[in-house]
Design goal:
The protein is α+β, with helices and mostly antiparallel strands and about 120 residues long. Helices cover about 40% and strands about 35% of the residues. Strands 1-2 form a two-stranded antiparallel sheet. Strand 1 and strand 2 (about 65) form a beta hairpin. The radius of gyration is 26 Å and the shape is flat.
């Protein structure tokens, strides 16, 4: 038992880390690691079957792959939106006073933007 204790503890740590990752993925609405691995293998199998071995780049919007980087850039230019904004329309500021053991007082100020005004710029060209 003493001889294998380091391997046992490493296995337990890895097991707990995998469980924590699976819980976070589940809470975020992401597929589990097993499901993601299954999808990746299926995509590789389909690529091998189609005979295409070109370099693919990931297209995050569709969840699939784009044939080339130029197509990704074209899509980004097509769907991009330009806006002008003023951040400090409304903001709040909180002042926190803290006394330490020596009688000194520390003051922290925190501000937060609570409203943002923006103007959409439409380009018809």
């Amino acid at each position: 038992m003493f001889i294998f204790w380091p391997q046992i503890t490493r296995w337990i740590h890895r097991f707990m880390a995998r469980r924590a990752e699976d819980m976070v993925r589940k809470m975020a609405g992401m597929p589990s690691r097993k499901e993601e691995e299954r999808r990746r293998k299926q995509q590789e199998k389909q690529q091998r079957a189609s005979g295409s071995r070109s370099n693919y780049s990931r297209d995050p919007r569709s969840g699939g792959y784009a044939a080339n980087p130029e197509e990704v850039v074209r899509n980004m230019q097509q769907y991009a939106e330009d806006v002008e904004f003023v951040e400090t329309k409304e903001y709040s500021e909180t002042e926190i006073r803290e006394d330490d053991t020596k009688g000194n007082q520390r003051i922290y100020r925190e501000s937060q933007v609570s409203d943002v005004e923006f103007i959409e710029i439409k380009d018809n060209g």
